């Protein structure tokens, strides 16, 4: 398991490949190890057994068994072993070393603003690349706007293709197709999900355009070019108008234009420069460059890449949003605690000394010095390019050596078994501003056995105090005190110093020397646990001598940062004195003292005080989009703002990275940050890839938020919650929900002896509503319905409601809950989201108006009863009726029918009649009124007249039902006479040979195709039938009355 560095997110995860046979870092695996390949077959088999490798894939895995290996079989005998172990392999009798490709393993750390890329790379001596013709173009989206896309012009492709994410960005509607696309050697590229028509124009002239029918692929796999190209390659074409000015920079391809439009794109002019391998060709998009060129560096084939910073930041962001719960220790954590108790010691000066808590033993560790050597050489290459980095690095290492935190290993102790020592790689880490620098020692680097030091160490339980709890406690002290333990990790001695060896030299011209770190190194898995445990153990050991300091050390430290306080000056002075003495007894020094009390600061040496005027609450060295600072002089919290604007393409990665840097653990800016969360939810719904551009609507929404966040700097929140330390106070909680989010807030109301009332926001938490729709009463948990739930036994409700009601009833009583209007509910702001300028003047920071009034409040404490005949499942909203029917807006808030007559020259009431329900007393009265004024007309006439002003749902049925009940209509309604059928003619009932007599059916059958949307053909058919019957009946007028009766 990889332990992610929580304090410096730029720590890297390294995967090294070192040969298990010769311990060389110049190659990886037995497949390319010359010394292993030259061994006889028997020694090869013995070696595989010795190194505990799989005989088939030659890889090390504790749970791997040859019978489950998926590597295939021997290509010489088809048995289940590797080909290099086969006796039929001709190379086992004659080893050929011809045409070997030299591969140099290097490990690189690429530090960017948003992520740390840790790669295990192979540098191949090939120094040439091939450029393919690319261009930047405009593509018209569904709204007629132009979006920039990157295209590849490929004459070898039989069709054109577009990425699905690009189609989503353009919001175009594809035509359904379902075909497979094959590449070279019939390799399946992917299944096409649709066909879309693209209108592509040039950047320079939008009048020049082509229309392309492109098949939609999930992705167009590779970035082009595949590696960085020397910028001097374009010097010969600097006077040309290039279609892609960044054609030398690796970037993704949105559209592939194939041979179907190749002729429309290419023009006739070409430019070849003598002695230059590149060619420029003119296209309608501009000039494209293609051909062979030099790389700006060696080609890098990445075997492993880890992008961990964005995920780490998102994980930390959601951790701050959760209220932590105490979890029981696991068996391994209990073992780590027991190991510390029996192994820790204190020397004569009181300094703690500890041992590494290995899981089992360190027997599986392999050789690690070679990878450390290669890492040092790589860092030295960076020194040659960055003198400032070199100076800082050497100063840090010199300081380490002078303080005795590392020592040179005697020559006789260097050659220890691999299981008894481990070499840590090291690399620099600095924040963006460059004002903080440190060297991190990487315990996750793999040894030759594929096992790292961190793999073998127990991490230990999480002992540090929850940050939210610490901040809440920090706000109740009248006098606040903060400080920082100087170099906390490096004040604790490590007995197992041979597991913290490093290689180092002051100059590339000096020999490499072996050192070992004698103190806990930042970057090992168990270092945080050991450091915090030593501090807590010190507090327990010294609880009798320093009671105040002991209590503060156990509860008021966040790793190495103190956030404590007292309610009087004398108590604060005593606490500061005890903390200084107790920690110094263990070799720990407290610096950067800060307080809102000048008398306390005057008692502390100026060199030990905080040099800045503000304290950053989060000890993370990354640059925060939104961070909290405490200003001791004014004793208020305020917010540090970083501009949210972006240069270049706004992708899912850059957007989520910015959101994740928001640091608001107590939710003071929840009405603002809830809008960030809803954007995150929208991005997940879109199912975009990490580096895909976000849709236009989300981009516009984000830009609006970015412009508004500037007003957050004006928000000030007092640190001290109470009017005075001994005042009475009450806590008030509010909750609310909307279809977008739900929220809860808690306020503290304190009253002084003189009657002064102080109301402060303590904490707020928000969550976006679930993706699966949930009814509003379920979300809200504040309405009168929920008050009834809380006042009843939880067992009578369904599981969803019962679980939450039971928890509410466990933590509180029903009489504590009340209903409040939305305008007086501060939680309502957090569910809707408001701008930062609105937040300053709202009830959010100081609570609703009634909290500032004297007790008792005028509230309704009665709990309403809930009628069992109205179950919660029957709940619906007006919006469920309005939205699908597109009902027009009405200034009188009357529901009207929509329809397509908006532009008709009719009265508004005729175009949009009032909507009436089918069963209502008003509907019955209107129908009876029209039936009466129309002189007891029938159903059709009554309905026609009513619909000039009203639209009744299911009108025909309800009108007919009421007319049948009309007494007058029943009295005067004439009875219908049924005609007597005549006798059948003899020709119809007398036996006769077949087809002797033929009849004509004047009524059909006529085959009619009914169109659902329009009934005109049906109506025309009726007219034709009537006309046909009339014609035939006219021809038969001379027939007898008896015959005509029969035919009719």
UniProtKB/TrEMBL annotation:
GO terms for biological process: DNA biosynthetic process. Gene3D superfamilies: Acid Proteases. Residues 922-974 form the Integrase zinc-binding domain. Pfam families: Integrase_H2C2, Peptidase_A17. InterPro entries: DNA/RNA_pol_sf (IPR043502), Integrase_H2C2 (IPR041588), Peptidase_aspartic_dom_sf (IPR021109), Retrotrans_Pao (IPR008042). This is Integrase catalytic domain-containing protein. The gene is AVEN_60143_1.
């Amino acid at each position: 398991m990889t332990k992610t560095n929580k304090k410096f997110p730029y720590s890297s995860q390294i995967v090294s490949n070192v040969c298990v046979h010769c311990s060389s870092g110049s190659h990886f695996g037995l497949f390319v190890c010359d010394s292993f390949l030259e061994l006889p077959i028997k020694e090869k088999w013995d070696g595989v057994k010795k190194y505990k490798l799989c005989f088939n894939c030659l890889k090390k895995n504790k749970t791997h068994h040859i019978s489950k290996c998926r590597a295939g079989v021997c290509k010489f005998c088809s048995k289940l072993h590797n080909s290099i172990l086969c006796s039929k392999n001709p190379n086992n009798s004659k080893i050929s070393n011809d045409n070997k490709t030299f591969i140099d393993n290097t490990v690189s750390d690429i530090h960017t603003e948003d992520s740390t890329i840790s790669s295990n790379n192979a540098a191949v001596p090939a120094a040439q690349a091939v450029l393919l013709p690319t261009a930047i173009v405009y593509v018209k989206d569904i709204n007629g706007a132009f979006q920039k896309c990157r295209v590849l012009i490929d004459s070898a492709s039989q069709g054109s293709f577009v990425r699905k994410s690009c189609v989503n960005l353009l919001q175009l509607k594809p035509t359904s197709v379902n075909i497979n696309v094959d590449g070279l050697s019939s390799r399946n590229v992917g299944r096409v999900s649709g066909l879309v028509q693209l209108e592509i124009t040039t950047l320079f002239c939008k009048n020049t355009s082509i229309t392309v029918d492109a098949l939609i692929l999930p992705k167009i796999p590779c970035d082009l070019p595949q590696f960085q190209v020397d910028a001097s390659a374009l010097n010969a074409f600097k006077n040309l108008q290039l279609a892609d000015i960044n054609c030398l920079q690796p970037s993704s391809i949105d559209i592939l234009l194939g041979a179907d439009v190749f002729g429309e794109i290419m023009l006739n002019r070409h430019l070849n420069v003598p002695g230059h391998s590149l060619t420029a060709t003119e296209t309608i998009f501009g000039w494209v460059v293609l051909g062979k060129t030099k790389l700006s560096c060696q080609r890098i084939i990445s075997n492993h890449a880890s992008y961990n910073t964005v995920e780490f930041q998102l994980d930390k962001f959601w951790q701050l949003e959760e209220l932590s719960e105490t979890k029981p220790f696991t068996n391994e954590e209990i073992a780590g605690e027991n190991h510390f108790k029996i192994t820790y010691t204190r020397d004569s000066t009181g300094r703690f000394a500890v041992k590494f808590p290995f899981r089992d033993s360190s027997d599986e560790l392999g050789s690690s010095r070679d990878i450390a050597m290669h890492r040092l050489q790589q860092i030295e290459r960076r020194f040659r390019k960055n003198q400032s980095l070199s100076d800082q690095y050497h100063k840090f290492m010199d300081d380490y050596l002078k303080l005795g935190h590392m020592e040179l290993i005697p020559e006789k102790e260097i050659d220890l078994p691999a299981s008894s020592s481990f070499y840590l790689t090291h690399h620099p880490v600095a924040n963006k501003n460059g004002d903080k620098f440190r060297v991190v020692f990487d315990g996750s680097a793999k040894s030759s056995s594929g096992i790292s030091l961190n793999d073998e160490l127990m991490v230990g339980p999480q002992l540090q105090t929850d940050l939210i709890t610490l901040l809440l406690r920090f706000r109740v002290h009248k006098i606040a005190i903060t400080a920082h333990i100087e170099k906390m990790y490096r004040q604790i001695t490590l007995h197992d110093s041979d597991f913290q060896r490093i290689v180092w030299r002051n100059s590339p011209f000096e020999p490499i020397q072996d050192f070992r770190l004698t103190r806990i190194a930042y970057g090992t898995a168990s270092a945080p646990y050991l450091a915090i445990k030593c501090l807590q153990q010190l507090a327990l050991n010294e609880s009798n001598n320093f009671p105040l300091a002991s209590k503060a050390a156990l509860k008021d430290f966040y790793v190495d940062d103190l956030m404590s306080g007292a309610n009087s000056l004398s108590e604060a002075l005593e606490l500061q004195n005890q903390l200084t003495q107790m920690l110094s007894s263990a070799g720990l020094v407290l610096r950067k003292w800060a307080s809102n009390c000048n008398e306390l600061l005057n008692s502390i040496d100026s060199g030990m005080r905080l040099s800045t005027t503000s304290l950053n609450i989060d000890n993370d060295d990354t640059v925060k989009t939104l961070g909290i600072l405490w200003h001791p002089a004014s004793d208020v919290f305020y917010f540090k703002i970083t501009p949210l604007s972006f240069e270049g393409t706004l992708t899912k990665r850059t957007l989520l990275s910015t959101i994740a840097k928001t640091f608001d653990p107590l939710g003071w800016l929840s009405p603002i940050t809830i809008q960030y969360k809803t954007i995150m939810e929208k991005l997940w719904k879109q199912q975009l890839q990490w580096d895909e551009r976000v849709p236009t609507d989300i981009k516009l929404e984000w830009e609006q938020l970015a412009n508004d966040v500037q007003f957050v700097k004006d928000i000030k929140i007092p640190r001290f919650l109470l009017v005075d330390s001994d005042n009475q106070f009450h806590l008030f909680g509010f909750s609310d929900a909307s279809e977008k989010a739900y929220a809860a807030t808690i306020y503290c109301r304190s009253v002084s002896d003189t009657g002064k009332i102080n109301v402060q926001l303590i904490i707020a938490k928000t969550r976006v509503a679930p993706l699966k729709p949930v009814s509003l009463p379920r979300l809200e948990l504040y309405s009168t319905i929920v008050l009834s739930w809380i006042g009843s036994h939880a067992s009578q409700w369904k599981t969803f409601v019962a679980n939450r009601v039971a928890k509410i009833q466990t933590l509180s009583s029903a009489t504590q809950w009340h209903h409040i209007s939305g305008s007086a509910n501060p939680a309502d702001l957090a569910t809707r989201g408001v701008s930062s300028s609105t937040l300053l003047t709202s009830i959010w920071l100081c609570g609703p108006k009634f909290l500032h009034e004297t007790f008792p409040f005028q509230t309704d404490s009665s709990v309403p009863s809930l009628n069992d005949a109205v179950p919660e499942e029957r709940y619906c909203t007006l919006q469920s009726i309005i939205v699908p029917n597109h009902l027009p807006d009405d200034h009188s808030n009357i529901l009207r029918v929509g329809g397509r007559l908006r532009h008709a020259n009719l009265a508004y009431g005729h175009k949009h009649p009032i909507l009436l329900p089918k069963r209502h007393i008003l509907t019955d009265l209107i129908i009876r009124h029209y039936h009466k004024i129309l002189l007891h007309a029938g159903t059709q006439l009554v309905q026609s007249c009513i619909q000039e002003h009203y639209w009744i749902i299911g009108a025909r049925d309800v009108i007919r039902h009421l007319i049948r009940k009309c007494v007058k209509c029943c009295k005067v309604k004439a009875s219908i006479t049924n005609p007597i059928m005549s006798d059948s003619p003899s020709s119809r009932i007398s036996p006769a040979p077949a087809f002797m007599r033929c009849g004509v059916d004047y009524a059909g059958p006529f085959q009619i195709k009914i169109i659902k949307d329009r009934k005109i053909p049906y109506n025309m058919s009726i007219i034709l039938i009537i006309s046909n019957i009339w014609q035939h009946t006219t021809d038969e007028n001379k027939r007898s009355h008896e015959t005509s009766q029969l035919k009719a």
